[in-house]
Amino acid sequence: MRLAAAAVLFATLQTTLAAGLPAASDDSTEVACAEIKTALHAIAGAEHDEALALDLASSGGNSTAIVAARLSVLLDRTQDLRVALRHVRQSADARDPTVDQCTRMGFRALVISEKLTSDVETVLFGGDDSVAQAPELKSGSAAPAASPPARQP
Question: Do the beta carbons of residue 113 and residue 47 sit within 8 Å?
């Protein structure tokens, strides 16, 4: 079920990216939108990798470490998008309609990505800040569970 939720969120982000960003009217707006688009593509790649890791884990393999590692990368890419959005919002072009549209799309993708990371953290570590693993991802070995990755502000 968690894998299906991850797949839906990934598909939603891919659909958003497939819609494309509007054509920029000048170099500075093009640069601003390109910065956001680059961050969005990086998140899409990280979400894809996370979905593959979740698929492996749901097959009963001992791959919770892979899921946690991919989650860490996804959190990093999400932080990169936050930085790009902050940079663009503080730029002189922030009020340009094209840049505003790019920024809005970036914020929608950020919300989707944060929901996905939250869901994956719940599956990996439980909802009560414990390090308990969800039944679908329990490993067959007696290896200790990985500690959750540090949350980005």
Answer: yes
Q: Residues 52-108: pLDDT tens digits?
A: 998 888 887 777 889 999 999 999 999 999 999 999 999 988 899 999 999 999 999
Instruction: Give pLDDT tens digits for 31-45.
Output: 999 999 999 999 999
Own/partner pairs, 85-90, CB within 8 angstroms, 24+ separation? 85/36, 85/39, 85/110, 87/35, 88/32, 88/35, 88/36
